Amino acid sequence: MNTNTKAPVTVPGIALTTTEIILIAKSTNIEPAALKAVQTVETGGRGGFIAPQKPTILFEGHIFWKMLMQQGINPHTHIKGNENILYPKWDRTKYKGGLAEYSRLEQACRISVEAAYKAASWGMFQVMGFNCFQCGVKSIYEFVRLMGESEYRQLKLTVSYLKATNIIGHLRRLDWKQFARAYNGPEYAANHYAEKLEKAYISAKKII
User: Hey, is 75 helix, strand or coil?
Assistant: First the structure.
């Protein structure tokens, strides 16, 4: 993959532990079961990596369209041959899932690495790349590198994002609807996101 940063590295302790969730939650005044609920819903029972050095991602072609425009690149001039990664409106039929999402990302990188990275959601909490600065990093390249280190690092970046956007308040109050609206977007109701969070929270309370 074409990149302007060092390749992510695999480090010991790559899997997030319950102890780490508890420590981070308590240090930020979040109930551990609430943070665990977000992890459960966002991962769907899977982890933050789909292969060594490859964080879980989902590439969004409509976001790529917007990111290119922000860079002064006309998306229309790149549509031909890139219909699977470049389109003006959200289209879930374009998703490939798993490692195949990296093929889509690499294809987009041939147009613009920065825009491509920002157009994907990263890690076990699926934070969008364009939110990188709210995660406390200096560049999208640093964001991607850190996402590739460990699930614990992914959690730290996510908590920074929640703080910067004040979404963390909804989680502290266990206000699932408001958290779902802010974190999952306006389609949260159609996705039953709030209900999934509350159910996961109840389950997490039994083990944390």
Answer: helix
Closest CA to 183 of 156, 85, 175: 175
More confident position, 51 or 9? 51
Tokens, residue 72: 């002064």
Residue where one domain finishes, among candidates 79, 106, 122? 122
Strand boundaries in 37-94, DSSP class E: 49-51, 54-55, 57-59
Q: Tell me, yes or no, whether 5 lies in a domain.
A: no
**Residues 194-208, mean pLDDT to the nearest whole number:** 95
Residue 198 lies in a domain: yes
The structure tokens listed for 165 are 């956007």
Per the structure, the complete domain to which residue 178 belongs is given by 18-48+151-205
Domain membership of residue 23 (yes or no) is yes
Q: What is the pLDDT of residues 130-171, one digit of tens each?
A: 999 999 999 999 999 999 999 999 999 999 999 999 999 999
- DSSP notation for 116-141: HHHTEEETTTTEEGGGGGGGT-SSHH
